[in-house]
Amino acid sequence: MEIFLIVLIACFVGIIFISGASKQKAEDARKQRHEREKVAAQERISQRESQKKAYEQSLSEYCKSYGSTSRIISMEEYDIDKQIIAFESSGNVLIMGDVYKMKSILGCELIDNSHIIKGKETIVTSADPVDTLGKMDAASMLFGRKTGNVLGAATAEKKTTVTRAPDRKIEDYRINITIDNMSKPILTIDTKSQAKASEIKALMDIIVHRNSQPSSL
Fold first, then answer.
1. How far is Cα 114 from Cα 200, in angstroms, rounded to an integer?
2. Backbone phi, psi, residue 132, to 5°
3. Residues 70-89, buried b or exposed e (16+ Cβ, 10 A)?
4. What are the start and end residues of each CATH 2.30.29 domain in the chain?
5. 3-class DSSP assignment, residue 20
6. Cα separation of 93 and 16, whole Å?
7. In whole angstroms, what is the distance from residue 117 CA to residue 5 CA?
8. Contact between residue 82 and residue 96 where contact means Cβ atoms under 8 Å apart
9. d(Cα 176, Cα 185) in Å, to the nearest integer?
10. What are 122's strand-pairing partners?
11. What CATH number is given for 67-116+169-211 in this structure?
12. Least confident of 95-99, 164-168, 213-217
């Protein structure tokens, strides 16, 4: 009896020890994961700050050469090569890393390539529960409960349900800017944002309109 109690106590202590070790291991893993996430977040912040600093320096250089900015359209934040920047005072516009005279902008076309992806249909066929119960009861009276249940379920009216997930719109826009340049007459900008596409189109339309006026830039 004493041996049995000793073994029982040993097993109980072992279970407590193993449970405690498992909890400690899980807690250590949680702390390590939290620390990795913290370090990764700090690295992202540092990288973002460096990117911002480099962008501001590049923008400052452009402003020294072409004057103050009158409009900035960002396709990607803090990336000077993914922006359209108008320098109205000097009559220049920076388009995706290259500077053009506003007078060289001849036209702009906005193409909507967006499309709809139809939602997936799911068809489920099952026995009508009301009809199933009715036929099971009727068949049970003739053939007994067990057989009646089988026959009732097999002969019950089937009901088909069709469900469909919502459709999804995939936005896709292309802006073609015509430039007075024989070697590269068209600049193409692609974006998934309708707002960005419309904003670029509006800016180019203003430039083209002003170019058609006697006092154009």
1. 17
2. -60, -45
3. eeebebeebebeebbbbbbe
4. 67-116+169-211
5. helix
6. 72
7. 69
8. yes
9. 10
10. 163
11. 2.30.29
12. 213-217
